[in-house]
Amino acid sequence: MQLLGEEEAKRAETRTQLKDDNFLREMHSRLVPGIENSEGRFEVHKFTCAALELPDFSDFERLRSLIDALIAELDPRDFLGCTTALEMLAETAATAPKCVPFFGQIGLLHTVYELFKHTKAEPDMGIIHIGSYFKPKKCSKKCTADADSLTKFPEFTADVFDSVYRFDAFDVTRRQLAFETLAVIGSSSGAKQILSQNESLFSMQRAMSHLAVAVATASEPSLKARHLEAVQMIFDQITVPGSEQKQNSSAAAPDWEEQLLHRWFRWLGEPFPKLLLQCVRDPISEVQMGALRVLMALLHHQWAYPHFCAVNGFIDLLVDRSVANFDADALQLKHALVCRVVDAASPSVNAGQMELLRDYRVKGPFWLTPRMEVATEGAG
Predict the structure, then answer these.
(1) Predicted pLDDT at 19
(2) Closest-CA residue to 173 (of 183, 162, 187, 163)
(3) What superkingdom heads the lineage (predicted)?
(4) How confident is the model at residue 145 (pLDDT cuts 50, 70, 90)?
(5) β-pairing verdict for 237-238 and 246-247
(6) Strand runs labelled E in the chain
(7) Which of 7, 18, 300, 348 has the smallest count of CB within 10 Å of its CB?
C-alpha cells in the first residue's frame, strides 16, 4: 500500500510539472548537447517518459520537443546514450501502448530501423539495439506486434530469422533476444498470416525446430526458462475475431489460426512433449514453472492433447502429489493445469485418467495423502 501511495504521489507531481510552462522551459534549457552533459539530459528524458506513461496523458504535442530530444539520443556514435535512449523508449512503449501509434506517426520506428541497418555489422550494436526496442518480455503482454512491420522492415525481420537459424553462434543476450523477438513477431493474427504466406522468406519450420533445440541444449537454467517463455508466448496469444487480442482467453482461435499453430507445434519436433515433461520435473524452479506455463498455453488447444497423452506418464505426472521439488506456486499452477485438462474433456484422456484428474481437482493443490502426512509429521 505504501509503495502504491508513493507511485501515485510521483504521478501527481509529474502532472503538476507537466502543466507548468516554467518547468518545461527549464527542462528545455537543460538539453545541452555533448557527452559531458549526458547525465543532465537524461534526467530530462526521465521526466519525459514519466509524463508519457501517465495513464491520463494524451497531449503529445505539448511534449513533442522533449520527445524529439530523446529520439535525438539515438546516435550510434554514443553507444551508452543510444542504448539507454532505446531502453527508455522501449519501456515507455511497453508501459503505455497508447504511445506506440504516436511513435509511428513521428517516424520513430523508421529511425530505429535505419539505426539497426547502420549498426548491423557491429556485433554489440545490431539486434541488441532493435531487440531492446521491442522489449519482448514486457511488451508482449501489453501490446501486440505490428504485422506490417514484417514487410515494412524486411532487413530486420530477415535478421531476426537469421539469428534464430544461427543461434548457437551468438552470445546469450543476442540468442535470447532472437527467440523472444521471434515470439513477439509471431504473436498476432496478422503476423501469422504474413508468415504463413511467406514461408520461403521466413521459414517458421526452421525457426521452430531451432527453438526446440535451444530449449533442449540451454545449459543455463535462466536461458532455458527464457526459451520456454518464448514458446509460451507463441502459443498463448489467442485472437478472437472482432476483439482485442487476449491472453489465456477461453474463446477459441479461428480455425485457420489453430491449424497454423498446430503445424508450428509439430515443427518443434516429435520429442518436444517428452522434453517439456522433463523440464516440468527439473529441480530448478524457473525451468519447472516455465514448462508448466508452456503446458498451460498448449493445452488450451484441443490438438495438443493427443500429442501429450501419447507420452507415457503424462497424466501420472499431473496427478502425482509426491513431487518433492514443487513449491506452492508450482502446485497451484499444476492444479490449474489439471482443471484445464478436465474442462477440455479431450477424448485422448480415458475414463480412468479423467476420474483421477477430477479427484485431484476436487482435493485441491495442497492436499496430502495419509502417507505424506505421516512423513511430514515425522520430519517436524
Answers:
(1) 95
(2) 163
(3) Eukaryota
(4) very low
(5) antiparallel
(6) 237-238, 246-247
(7) 7
Cα–Cα distances in Å, from 348 out to 23, 253, 283, 316? 65, 21, 29, 14
Whether 263 is in a domain gets the answer no
Domain membership of residue 131 as a residue range: 9-136
pLDDT at 241 over 50: no
CA dihedral sign, ordered 315, 319, 321, 327: positive
Cα torsion 171, 176, 181, 182 to 10°: value is 100
**213 occurs within a structural domain:** no
User: Alpha-carbon distance 273 to 351, whole Å?
Assistant: 22
Residue type, 35: I
The amino acid occupying position 270 is E
Give the cell for residue 18: 507537466
Angstrom distance (rounded) from CA 233 to CA 361: 26
- Residue 125 to residues 45, 74, 76, 79, 139, Cα–Cα distance (Å): 22, 12, 8, 8, 21
Q: How confident is the model at residue 231 (pLDDT cuts 50, 70, 90)?
A: very high
Total structural domains in the chain? 1
- d(CA 277, CA 275) in angstroms, rounded, equals 5
The answer to whether 141 and 191 are in contact (CB under 8 A) is no
Of 141, 339, 120, the closest CA to residue 250 belongs to 339
Contact 92, 52 (CB under 8 A): yes
Read off the pTM.
Answer: 0.73
Cβ-Cβ contacts under 8 Å for 173 (sequence gap 6 or more):
128
Predicted confidence (pLDDT) at residue 133 exceeds the cutoff of 60: no
N- to C-terminal Cα distance for the chain? 35
Single-letter residue type at 218: A
* Concatenated DSSP letters of 81-133: HHHHHHHHHHHHHHH-TTHHHHHHHTTHHHHHHHHHHHHTTSTTTSHHHHHHH
Strand partners, 371: none
pLDDT value of residue 306: 96
The alpha carbons of the chain give a radius of gyration, in whole angstroms, of 24
Instruction: Tell me, yes or no, whether 161 lies in a domain.
Output: no
Q: Is residue 68 part of a domain?
A: yes
H or E stretch at 5: helix 2-19
DSSP string of 45-62, one letter each residue? HHHHHHHHTSTT---GGG
Inter-axis angle of helices 204-217 and 172-185, to 10 degrees? 140
C-alpha cell at 293: 506455463
